[in-house]
Design a protein that fits this description.
- The structure is a single chain.
- The chain is mostly helical.
- The longest helix has about 120 residues.
- The chain is rod-shaped and about 175 Å long.
- It starts with a helix and ends with a helix.
- The model has no long low-confidence stretch (mean pLDDT about 90).
- Belongs to the CEP162 family.
Length: about 120
């Protein structure tokens, strides 16, 4: 027969072993859970990185489209400006021609009036 102290000590030792085993099981479960979380988070991170790259490409394409459209609009504006300048030049030339023509008409009108006055004067003599 064992004495009471040894029995108690063995009982406590057995209790400690059972407790350690249970703690070890809980730690393994927690470790497995954490490993699954890590795996899932890595997959999420990879998916987010793919999305980020896709968004960067879309952003770059949008920038390129804006640059192209802006360049295209600037080209259109330059063409319109050039057309406008040519039209202004054409209209200024026409206006100059009308002014010169009106000046000639005014001179002719004065000469015609003078000639009519001279004719009338000669008739009266």
């Amino acid at each position: 027969m064992m004495d009471w102290g040894k029995e108690r000590l063995l009982h406590n030792l057995l209790w400690l072993k059972i407790t350690c085993f249970c703690i070890s099981l809980n730690i393994k479960k927690e470790k497995n859970s954490l490993l699954e979380d890590i795996k899932r988070l890595k997959q999420d991170k990879q998916a987010l990185e793919v999305d980020l790259e896709k968004m960067k490409k879309e952003r770059d394409q949008a920038k390129d489209q804006i640059t192209y459209a802006t360049g295209e609009k600037l080209y259109e504006i330059k063409i319109l400006e050039e057309t406008h300048k040519q039209e202004i030049s054409r209209l200024q030339k026409r206006l100059q021609w009308y002014a010169e023509n009106q000046e000639l008409l005014d001179k002719d009108a004065v000469r015609l009036k003078e000639a009519s006055e001279e004719i009338e004067k000669l008739r009266l003599e």
